[in-house]
């Protein structure tokens, strides 16, 4: 589903655009490592494949049909960096050559459909394939879960953006429920088709599947003198690419900048809905929010007089809280993974 | 949705709009879309002015209204969504034709319909007056990353090849009696997708080798220089400048 112009307000569109541009820039560097000088023709052809695969409609139920989104599929088949580039190019071409999806919403569309689906899909896929036993069944199961998770994840990010700067007066809770519910169903279909597609490619050309590097067994020749391992014992598993640190630092900087500085301007004028509400005298009907008296209520910090300063501080504090919460989850997962990793060498020997 | 629109919209002709350098048109359309989105939705006249601006461009480019309207079918899914907003929206209710509708929801629906339609028409006019190849050259002139432009070039160049391959696979499936009835048939379609991926990837490898043998070093040579004069920029800039003035006027008359 391509978001059109006018669905999000200008600050969110611009913010998502900056985020998408930064993400694509990182992926341009990363894809060069994944594909070296083959990047342009290979990524171009894979982008054409994704465009074509999105046109494969499969019937879901009762006359409705769904089609592949392809972010997770591309990440598993050609690697996360190339996948983001391919889907982003597909979206750019659809926006400029086919008038599909608003030009001001390109940032939102690329963020949701290219970056979130590919990154989430790849992260889930790696998490499962590293922990699970080697073999085709694990790869296929991991593809299913990765694609299944990636679609509702994009829907949730959409809901978050909608909460920040959506123009429609629908309760965020109901948007989250509707988007999450519908996209869980779509995700099931996506996971099903992604897993089957990865499985069929694995059966014919396992060497092409990026996510299976280092997972497939080396070729074994059964000769009269016994089994002989041939060729390099399967290429190394793809490294994580650039270190995590620059990405984290850059992301944190962008988030703090957006929250602290952009919210100066975003909050200085009432948004369209608030304005209409004030004009039409609707404000009297507004119900006080449950967290009205919270320290960050209304995006301003209590006890800070300057309204703009206060809005910016609230934004920065919000980002800090999010980082702490997200970091906590990440830390727990990593500790588990380390525990799992320290188990595997012993069992492998 | 992205089904059924794989034929580019380009309409060859020789008009002042067609002759403008692509980078000017690209920048103008993107700026126009931004100003339209920034226009406050309560000012109906501002959107009428924007629509008139686009109508003037369409007239200058001799793009028939029918072609634009047919292409606008692409926004139908979101139109349906926009029409649902007044029904499920929150806020004060108003009675229209016996239906209880949300007043802010009506505003939001109008906002999305107006801005999305203007944006779609602007994109259609851009695509209708600019050859895809020229659009890519223009994007490169606008300092978009060269690698990104190259990827898009290859994608567009081989899109029809890949789509034809898919069409042949569909004909092969159907001539063997395949009908997709429900999700159980998805496995057949997924195998087609897998085969299509392998064919695309292998074609990419062949294309790369063919290019290497012709001296490819990772950069495409510039064969055609398209530079824009100040006059070109001024002509193309009229559209976004007028839209910006409209948006400013609309904000100042609140």
TrEMBL record, chain A:
User: Source species, please?
Assistant: Microbispora catharanthi
Main localization category: membrane
What GO CC terms are in its UniProt record?
Answer: plasma membrane
- Single Gene Ontology BP term? transition metal ion transport
One Pfam family in the UniProt entry: PDGLE
Compartments, record wording:
Cell membrane
Q: Which Gene3D superfamilies match?
A: 1.10.1760.20
Q: How does it sit in the membrane?
A: Multi-pass membrane protein
Give every PDGLE domain span: 246-335
UniProt-listed InterPro entries? CbiM/NikMN, PDGLE_dom
Which keywords label this protein?
A: Cell membrane, Membrane, Transmembrane, Transmembrane helix, Transport
UniProt-recorded name of the protein: Cobalt ABC transporter permease
Q: Which residues cross the membrane?
A: 12-31, 43-60, 72-97, 103-125, 137-164, 184-204, 247-266, 312-333
From TrEMBL, chain B:
UniProtKB keywords: Cell membrane, Membrane, Transmembrane, Transmembrane helix
Q: How does it sit in the membrane?
A: Multi-pass membrane protein
GO cellular component terms, alphabetically, are: ATP-binding cassette (ABC) transporter complex
Superkingdom of this protein's organism: Bacteria
* NCBIfam families on file: ECF_T_CbiQ (TIGR02454)
PANTHER family linked: SLL0384 PROTEIN
Tell me what this protein is called. Cobalt ECF transporter T component CbiQ
This chain's source organism reads Microbispora catharanthi
Which gene does this sequence derive from? cbiQ
């Amino acid at each position: 589903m391509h978001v059109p112009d006018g669905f999000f307000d200008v600050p969110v569109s611009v913010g998502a655009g900056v985020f998408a541009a930064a993400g694509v820039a990182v992926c341009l560097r990363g894809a060069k490592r994944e594909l070296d000088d083959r990047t342009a023709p290979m990524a171009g052809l894979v982008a054409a494949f994704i465009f074509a695969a999105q046109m494969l409609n499969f019937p879901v139920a009762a006359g409705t049909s769904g089609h592949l989104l392809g972010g997770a599929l591309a990440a598993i088949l050609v690697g996360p960096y190339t996948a983001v580039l391919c889907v982003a190019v597909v979206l750019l071409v659809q926006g400029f050559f086919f008038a599909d999806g608003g030009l001001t919403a390109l940032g939102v569309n690329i963020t949701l459909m290219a970056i979130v689906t590919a990154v989430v899909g790849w992260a889930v896929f790696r998490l499962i394939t590293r922990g699970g036993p080697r073999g085709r069944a694990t790869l296929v199961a991991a593809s299913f879960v990765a694609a299944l998770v990636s679609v509702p994840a994009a829907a949730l990010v959409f809901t978050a953006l909608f909460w920040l700067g959506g123009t429609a007066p629908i309760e965020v809770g109901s948007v989250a429920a509707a988007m999450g519910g519908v996209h869980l169903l779509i995700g099931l279909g996506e996971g099903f088709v992604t897993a089957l597609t990865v499985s069929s490619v694995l059966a014919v050309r396992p060497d092409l599947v990026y996510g299976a590097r280092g997972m497939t067994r080396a070729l074994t020749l059964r000769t009269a003198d016994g089994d002989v391992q041939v060729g390099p014992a399967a290429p190394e598993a793809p490294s994580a690419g650039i270190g995590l640190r620059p990405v984290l630092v850059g992301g944190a900087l962008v988030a703090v900048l957006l929250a602290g500085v952009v919210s100066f301007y975003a909050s200085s004028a009432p948004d369209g809905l608030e304005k209409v509400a004030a004009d039409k005298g609707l404000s009297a009907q507004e119900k006080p929010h449950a967290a009205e008296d919270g320290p960050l209520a209304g995006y301003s910090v209590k006890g800070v007089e300057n309204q703009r300063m206060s809005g910016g501080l609230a934004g920065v504090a919000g980002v800090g809280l999010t980082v702490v919460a997200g970091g906590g989850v990440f830390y727990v997962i990593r500790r588990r993974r380390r525990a799992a990793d320290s188990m595997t060498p012993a069992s492998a020997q | 949705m992205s089904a059924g629109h794989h034929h580019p919209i380009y309409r060859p002709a020789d008009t002042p709009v067609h002759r403008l350098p692509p980078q000017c048109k690209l920048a103008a359309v993107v700026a126009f879309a931004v100003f339209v989105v920034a226009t406050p939705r309560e000012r109906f006249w501002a959107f009428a002015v924007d629509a008139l601006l686009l109508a003037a461009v369409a007239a200058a480019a001799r793009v028939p209204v029918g072609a634009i309207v047919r292409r606008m079918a692409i926004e139908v899914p979101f139109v349906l969504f926009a029409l649902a907003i007044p029904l499920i929206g929150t806020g004060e209710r108003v009675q229209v034709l016996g239906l209880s509708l949300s007043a802010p929801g009506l505003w939001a629906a109008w906002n999305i319909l107006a801005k999305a339609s203007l944006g779609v028409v602007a994109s259609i006019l851009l695509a209708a007056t600019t050859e895809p190849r020229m659009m890519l050259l223009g994007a490169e002139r606008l300092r978009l990353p060269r690698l990104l432009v190259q990827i898009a070039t290859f994608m567009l160049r081989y899109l029809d090849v890949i789509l034809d391959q898919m069409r042949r696979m569909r004909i092969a499936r159907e001539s063997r009696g395949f009908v997709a009835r429900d999700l159980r048939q998805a496995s057949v379609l997924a195998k087609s997708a897998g085969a299509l991926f392998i064919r695309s990837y292998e074609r990419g490898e062949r294309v790369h080798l063919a290019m290497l043998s012709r001296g490819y070093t990772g950069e495409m040579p510039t064969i055609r220089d398209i530079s824009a004069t100040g006059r070109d920029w001024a002509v193309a800039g009229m559209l976004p400048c007028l839209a910006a003035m409209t948006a400013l006027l609309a904000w100042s008359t609140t």
